[in-house]
Amino acid sequence: MKAYDVIVIGAGVVGAATARELSRRQGRFLVVEKALDVCEGTSKANSAIVHAGFDAEPGTVKAKMNVRGNEKMDKLSQELDVPFQRVGAFVVCFSQEELPKLQELYDRGVQNGVTDMELLTGDQARALEPHLSQEVAGALLAKTSGIVCPFELTLGLAESAAKNGVAFSFDTQVTGVEPGEQGWVVHTSQGDFSARAVVNAAGVFSDQVHNWVCEEKLHITPRRGEYCLLDHTAGNHVSHTVFQLPGKYGKGVLVSPTVHGNLLLGPTAKDIGDPEDTATTAAGLQEVLEKSALGVKDIPTRQVITSFAGLRAHEDGDDFVLGESAPGFFDAAGIESPGLTSAPAIGEYLAELITEKLGLSENPAFDPLRKGVPKVKDLPVEERAALLRKDPAYGQIVCRCEEISYGEIRDAIHGILGAKTLDGIKRRTRAGMGRCQGGFCSPRVMDLLSQELGLDLTQIRKSGNDAQIVLEKTRGEG
C-alpha cells in the first residue's frame, strides 16, 4: 500500500488549489480523481465570475474566503498564465422599492471588506452600460469583480502542483475512508492508499466522503444551473457582469462577457436529487433567456452556440464547511458559489492547517510559475513567424473557429497532466469551443489523440470512460 503525507480527494478547482498550496511544503502528496482529467465536475460548468464579496453573509466562512480569494487572483493569474480581467459587476434592481436592498448589499460588502463599490441611479448605470434595460431603477457597481476561465484556472493550479511534485491518480474512484495505523486508509478502484491526512474536496459527493468518517453528518443538495453561451459576435454586448438582486437560490440570472470574448447567460437554480444530472431542459433554457432580458436589452439570442448545465454543492447550513472535522481529516465541503473565487483562499487555509498538524517544512524548490499551452493566434506577428519557421505544426490549423493548430493540440497532449480526451483538448486549447462546437475539428482532434497516444480510435473518449465516440471500426474492401 502506497503511503503519502496527504491525499486530496477531488481534482476540481478546490482540490487543485489545495494541492498547489501543499506543494509549497516538503512531503508526499497525492490527488485522487474518479474522472480521467481535472475539472470534470462543478469546476467545469459555472459562471466564471470572480465575485467581489458583497453577497455572502458577514461573519461566514464564505465571506472570508470570497474576499481573500478575490485579493489573490491578480498575482495568481500571472503566476499560472491564465486569463483574468477585472471588468466589474452591476447588481441591478427594477423598482424604487428595491433600492434599499441594494443599500443592504453595499453595507454587507463594507462589512466583508470589499472596496471600490458605488451605488448608482438607473441613468448613471446605463451611462456606463448602455444595454441595461430601461426598467433598471438602480444598481450597485462593484469594481473588484472579475471574470476568469474556470478550465484554465483549475488546470493551472493542478499543473503547478504536479510541476512541484504532487502526484495525480485519475480514473480512481474513492470507495471508502477509514482510520489506519498512520492516519487514514483511502480505499479506491485502483487499490488502497494510506495518508497521515486526507482532504475532502469531492464536490457534490463531499457529504458522502465526510459521512464515512464523521459522526456529525452533512447533507449536500445538488443545485443545477443551466446556461446559454453566445458567439464571439455577441461578446461586446455588455462590458461588465450584470447580476439581478439575489434571491433564495443565489445571485440570479446574469449576463456577462467571458475572457475569451463570448457572452454568457445564466444560471437557473433547481435543487435535484441526482448528483450527476447535468442535463439541460427546454424550460430551464427558456427561463435563462427570459430572465436575462429583464436586466439587459437586445441580447442577440440568435447567436447562442451552445447550452450546458452545472451542479453546485449546496450544504444545508448554507456555508462552506472547512477545517479539521476529525483528527487528520480536513473538509472542503459544500463549496458552491462563490467557490471558484474562494478556491485559492481555501487551498491556502487548508494547507496552513495541515502544515501545522503534520509539521511540514517549506519546499525550497517550489516554483510558482507555470506556462499554459501557447495561444499562437495571439502572438505578435514576428514571434508567430519565428515559431512557424521553427515548427510548421503551429501553422497547421485544426480548429478553424478558434484558430487552434496541430502544434497546440500536440502540446496539450504531451504537457504535464496531458490531455487524453476530446474534452481535455477542448479545455486546454479551446479546439471545439467555437461557433461550430467541434463539428469540423472533432474528427481531426480524435485522429491526433489516437496518433500521439498510440490508441485505437475506439479507445478515444469525449470525457469519461462511458463517453465512447467510435464504437467500432469497419474496413472497406479494396
For this entry, give a set of tags.
24% strand; alpha+beta; FAD/NAD-bd_sf; NAD(P)/FAD-dependent oxidoreductase; FAD-dep_OxRdtase; 478 residues; BFD-like_2Fe2S-bd_dom_sf; eight-stranded mixed β-sheet; globular
Topology:
Layout: E1 2-9, H1 13-22, E2 29-32, E3 49-50, H2 61-80, E4 84-85, E5 89-93, H3 99-112, E6 117-121, H4 122-128, E7 138-142, E8 146-148, H5 150-163, E9 167-169, E10 174-180, E11 183-188, E12 191-200, H6 206-213, E13 220-230, E14 241-244, E15 254-257, E16 263-266, E17 270-271, H7 282-295, E18 304-315, E19 321-326, E20 329-333, H8 339-358, H9 381-390, E21 397-399, E22 404-405, H10 406-414, H11 422-429, H12 442-453
Domain BFD-like [2Fe-2S]-binding: 397-450
Domain FAD dependent oxidoreductase: 5-353
InterPro entries: BFD-like_2Fe2S-bd_dom (IPR007419), BFD-like_2Fe2S-bd_dom_sf (IPR041854), FAD-dep_OxRdtase (IPR006076), FAD/NAD-bd_sf (IPR036188), G3P_Oxidase/Oxidoreductase (IPR052745)
- The best one-word shape is globular
By DSSP, the count of extended strands is: 22
* Chain-averaged pLDDT: 95
Low-confidence stretches: none
Strand content is 15-25%
* Structural class assignment: alpha+beta
Helix content: 25-40%
Outline the biggest β-sheet.
8 strands, mixed
Count of runs of 4 or more consecutive helical residues: 12
The radius of gyration over CA amounts to 22 Å
| Head-to-tail CA distance between termini | 53 Å
